[in-house]
Known about the structure:
Blueprint: E1 3-9, E2 16-22, E3 24-29, H1 32-38, E4 43-49, E5 53-57, E6 61-64, E7 70-73, E8 80-84, E9 90-94, E10 108-110, H2 135-146
Parallel strand pairs: 3-10
Antiparallel strand pairs: 1-2, 2-5, 3-4, 4-9, 6-7, 7-8, 8-9
Protein name: Aldehyde-activating protein
Keywords: Lyase, Metal-binding, Zinc
GO molecular function, one term: carbon-sulfur lyase activity
Amino acid sequence: MIGRIFTGGCQCGAVRYRAEGTLDDPHICHCRMCQKAAGNYFLPLANIAREDFRIVRGQPAWYRSSDLVRRGFCRDCGTPLFYDMPHASFLNIALGSLDDPDDVQPVYQSGVESRMFWFSHLPQLPETETDDGSEAAAERHLIVLESNRQHPDYDTVHWPPEEDLS
């Protein structure tokens, strides 16, 4: 894969990380444990050597999902961040937590015995942009955009920005 600098973090910005080097073994895991950990149908992951990785803001919370694996996530917003085997020389990053997740394309799928049978039909489903559809949907999307508290896809000195909550 590509040797470079990757940054990422959780939705609220409480946990941020930096990976310098190569993200290896990018894949999509469909196993039931990753489905539960991600709260989704699959979990895209890639690993980075421990010496090439550091947390630059906050600390993740950890859940030991098995004797071998623990899962790192933000205790404030719940974003899944890491799949970690503490005795391994690498750490897996949840690719959706990267600031630019399009930078790393999966090269295989694992845990396919638990993959949703209907995934093969996804290309046939109708597609819309976020604010396409009804006027009500467009209005909701505008409200979300105007009140967005999601951390931006780059490092910040302070987050969230100071707000007048009165």
